[in-house]
Structure formats: structure tokens, C-alpha cells
Amino acid sequence: MSKVKDPPVDRGAPARPTVVSFWRTLAAGAVGGGLVGLLIGGVLGRLLMGLLTVTSPSHLRGRLTDDIQPVGQISFGGTLNFFVTTIALGAIAGLVYLWVRRVLPPSRRARAGLFALFTGNIGGAFLVHDHPSFDYSALQPEWLAVLSFVAIPTLFGLLAPTFIDRLEAPSGWARRGPVWLGVGLGVAALNLGLVVVAVPVAVAFGISRSEAAMRLWQSDAVTVAGRVLFVVMVAWGVYGITADVISIATNRPSTWPFHP
Fold first, then answer.
1. Residue 48 has pLDDT above 60, yes or no
2. The pLDDT value given to residue 16
3. CA-closest candidate to residue 96, choices 240, 246, 233
4. How far is CA 78 from its chain centroid?
5. Burial annotation 117-150 (CB, 10 A radius, 16+ → b, else e)
């Protein structure tokens, strides 16, 4: 007597997120990243800049920083603009986390630690400038300026994954609240940053609507390639920070090629 075999089960077909689920995830990334950007980049960043004003020579008061902000002068309009900018940068970085976590470990602590390594080195390399940058040559002490603007993106990367993951959890606000409100707040957080994220978001949406693209996205090959790219990006950030620190310490413009 022949035995009837069960039909083969296709275990390779990944589950595609629904359209609503996709936009809820993006809302969690933008809103969670924007909130952490406000707290770390905005509030803490403003406090650190105030500290550098106190520790720097008094004759620098009123001089313009690299970001065209007068040293020691705090205005409502300037502070509001600064907060809006840090919210937008945090929202963009929150969306970056949604892409990067694809190659990060499942452990929440490991994800936060590695994302902090990523943002600290990449963000620090872009925020710290080589000699004769005003922010890192005139403001004193120089080591405090460098440490401050490496610490800010590092702390962002350490906290943002927890905020975003909790918002996106089944019981989180991004999953339970009205989708239109989440997307609206995400758009508001991004503001002009929408220009930067429009194409990557469109690509992500296209991938989410195709089973073949989702299968490729979840493949081992993409995992390995993503982890290699992650290591390369972190190494590039370390390289950039090192070039800037040597330039600041020697009071000479950096001649190192390809650093951010």
C-alpha cells in the first residue's frame, strides 16, 4: 500500500507587511528618532554648547560658529530652529535604524550597542571638523568640543532603538494609534528631511510589495553583505574622526583623503 505524502511546504516565502503595517513601522522610526533627536541633539546639545561658551575665552562671545550661530547668544528663534533641525536629523537617523537593524543581532542591548557604535562614528566624523574649524580650534578646550560632538550621536544611537522598538511593538503607540496620526507626526518630524528620505522610502515600499524582493532582502547573501557594509561604514567613521583629531591636535588642515 502506497503512503500518501504531504505536499511540500514552501518555507522560503517571506511574509510581506501590509501597506498599513509598513507605514506604521516608518512612523515609529521617524517619531521615535525625532523624539530622541530632540532630547539628545536638541536639549543636551544646547547645554553642551552653553558649557563650551563658559569654558571658552570671553572675547569669542558674539562670534559665529561653523553653523552660523553667535557664541553665547541664545534667542527663542534660534533655539526653535535648532530644535526643529535636531528633530529632523533624529527622524532621518530613526529611519536609518529601520534599515540597519536588518543586520543587527536580535538582542535589544546588542542592537542598541552596535547602532550606537554606528551613529557615534559616522555622526562624529561628520560633526567634528578638521583645523581651522572655528568650533574645534577657537572654542576651548578643544578636547571637550570633540568629545561632546562624538558623544551626542553615540547617545542617540544607544537610546533610539529602544524608543523605536517600543513604539513599534504590538502594544506600542505606533501599532495601536490611528495610522494617519502616526504618519502625520512622522512627516512633521522629518519636515525638510522628507527630501532626503523620499527615494529610500519609495524603494523600501517597493521591496515590501514584492515577494521576490522580500525573499532577496531576507536572504543570507544580503545579511552577509549588510554586515560587511556595516563594518566598513564604522571603520570609515573611525578613520574620519582620527583624521580630524590629528588635524586639531597639530593645528594643521587634514590631508587624509576620503574622510567625511
1. yes
2. 66
3. 233
4. 23
5. bbbbbbbbbebbbbbebebbbbbeebeebbebbb
pTM of the model: 0.89
Are 200 and 95 in contact by the 8 Å Cβ rule? The answer is: yes
Grid cell 517597493 is found at 206
Peptide bond into 132 cis (omega under 30): yes
Report d(CA 178, CA 47) in Å as an integer. Answer: 35
Residues 6 or more apart whose Cβ sits within 8 Å of residue 64: 70, 71, 134
Quote the cell numbers at residue 53.
Answer: 561658551
The string of pLDDT tens digits covering residues 166-225 is: 999 999 999 999 999 999 999 999 998 999 999 999 999 999 999 999 999 999 999 999
List all residues 6 or more positions away from 141 whose beta carbon is below 8 Å from its beta carbon: 55
Reference 135, options 40, 48, 235; nearest CA is 48
| Neighbouring C-beta atoms of residue 12, cutoff 10 Å | 9
Block residue for cell numbers 515600499: 205
Q: 34: burial class by Cβ within 10 Å (0-12, 13-18, 19+)?
A: buried
